[in-house]
Amino acid sequence: MRSKLGLASILAVALMGPGPPESRALLVICSPGSPGTTAEAQPTLDAFASVVEQGPGWPAPSLAVVYYAPAEAGRYRIAAEKAASALVSPPFYYEFAAALSLQAQLEAVPLSGVGEDYSLVARKGLIASAASLSGWEITGSAGFSQGFVRQAVLGDWGQLPDDVRITYSALPLTALRKSASGEHVAVLLNREQTGALGSLPFAADLEILHKSSNFPAGLFCLIPNRLPAARAESLLRALKALSQTDSGREALKSIRISRFSALEKSRLKSVTRPGSSQENPKP
Q1: What pLDDT, in 10s, does the model give residues 243-263?
Q2: Model-level pTM?
Q3: Could you tell me which of 150, 119, 117, 145 has the C-alpha nearest to residue 216?
Q4: What is the DSSP letter of 258?
Q5: Is residue 115 left, alpha or beta, with left meaning phi > 0 and alpha meaning psi from -120 to 50?
Q6: What is the dihedral of CA 256, 38, 192, 220, to 10 degrees?
Q7: What's the farthest any 2 CA atoms get from each other in the chain?
Q8: Where are the alpha helices (DSSP H) in the chain?
Q9: CA-CA distance, 147 to 137, in Å (whole number)?
């Protein structure tokens, strides 16, 4: 039931040690809820970076890639005026795009299909509508962004009561057990976790209350004034071209992505906080 986006995580910025040299463009990948360690991830990340930088013909090493599972650690690293680009999850983009000036350019399409969606699960027969969740807890890997949960994921189901507690949980199994036993806990599962729901011994005690619309699984973003325009353009071309070569497809597969594709405005709007000025500008 773990969320697996294919890259390992880090517990805190301090564990990273020294960052990459300033001459290397830094790509920060952040997807809260993914398991693993930095040490396990780094060989995969280094190999991926070496393939990407071959596309525009950059001298090696020109690209550095780091991964963070905690949202705050990823946010801090992007904000530290070192990251030139970021690959982030839908709730991360919703929560931090405006503050970090993330300019979404490409959609990362996972190996398992197009996009990401979320299902809200609870004990059968207890919840008839969003209003019935008064006093309940909603927990899941997207829970660090209350706005994303309330508005993007559940907004078309109904308005949640103000007293609903929304919490972050990387591993939903314990919460699902509590929910199945009748505790007032609803669990927000991503698409992969929802697919595994039927394998649980207590699955018959649970029901899906609401399924969200489909969001981009990952958004590749540029950060203004961190990379020269020509270099930014060449990086975008290189990412889009990865799926056209054997080495590129293998590199994408290592991080559980099938391709990077153009990002439609409607797809970006689905993960943009209402009232935000975030658009899909040219680099």
Answers
A1: 999 999 999 999 999 999 999
A2: 0.89
A3: 117
A4: E
A5: left
A6: -60
A7: 60
A8: 38-54, 71-79, 90-100, 146-147, 173-180, 191-195, 229-241, 246-254, 265-269
A9: 15
**DSSP three-state, residue 190:** strand
Q: Which residue, 170, 95, 174, 182, is CA-closest to 140?
A: 170
Distance CA 76, CA 157 (A): 33
> How many CA atoms are closer than 13 Å to the CA of 105, on its beta-carbon side?
23
Interior/surface letters 129-157, b for 16+ CB within 10 angstroms, e for the rest: ebeebeebbbbbbbbbbbebbbbbbbbee
Backbone angles phi, psi at 253, to 5 degrees: -60, -35
> What phi and psi values does residue 106 have, to the nearest 5 degrees?
-135, 155
Q: How far is CA 71 from CA 78, 101, 146, 161, 222, in A?
A: 11, 16, 13, 25, 18
For the stretch 203-251, pLDDT in tens is 999 999 999 999 999 999 999 999 999 999 999 999 999 999 999 999 9
At position 264, the amino acid (one-letter code) is E
User: Which residue shows structure tokens 């500008």?
Assistant: 281
Q: Which amino acid is at 241?
A: A
User: Is 61 within 8 Å of 49 (Cβ atoms)?
Assistant: yes
Report residue 269 as tokens.
């709007």
Residue closest to 87 by CA, chosen among 15, 174, 5, 24: 5
